[in-house]
Amino acid sequence: MEALKVIDIFNSHIVDVLPHKFKSDPEVLALSYAVSTILNKYFHSLSKSMVISGIDNLSEEVLDLRAIELDIPYYTSDMDIETKRKLVKSAIALYKKAGTKASIRAVVQTVLGNGEVIEWDKFNGVPGSFKIVTSGSSDTEALQELTKIIKKIKNASATLIAVERIIDIKAAVYIGGLVQSVTIQSVR
Description:
The protein has 5 helices and 3 strands; from the N terminus they run ααααββαβ. By secondary structure, the protein is mainly alpha-helical. The protein has a 3-stranded mixed beta sheet with strand order 1-2-3, covered by helices on one side. Helix 2 (60-70) runs parallel beside helix 3 (81-96) and helix 4 (101-112) packs antiparallel against helix 5 (140-153). It is elongated and about 130 Å long. The termini are far apart. InterPro entries: Tail_protein_I (IPR006521).
């Protein structure tokens, strides 16, 4: 008995799943080839139409068109292609959370790589205000872009106070000390 094997649907023929006695019939082979050719054309067309799952394979031009179609308010055509892909992938989920802390956090992490949204009660701010603390991108342009994006997606009553960037500085610190003991004797 032949061992079971996984068949790649994109590179298979009907003959691959038929009993051995049909594999040598010329009519079956011709039919198998014809059906395989038609299915491969169909699969190729289908792969181009996958809008959400195929984002990693889309060209930059198609990503730009997809962003226009989704009306992503914080998308610009001069972003790098990986950022564009992340934004297009997360657009629908962000629309569901528009105006919330979660949507702002998602944009911060997409644009800067990491960061946290700190609400007013955590830093003794004015009610309705928030700030962003990040150790991500140190690019000033990215921070300015983030500020513009957040102004578009935040709740209308919320106020962005600041975008704070935390920089870890690693340096050797040397501390020295001297202890001296002196005995004073007075002679009378």
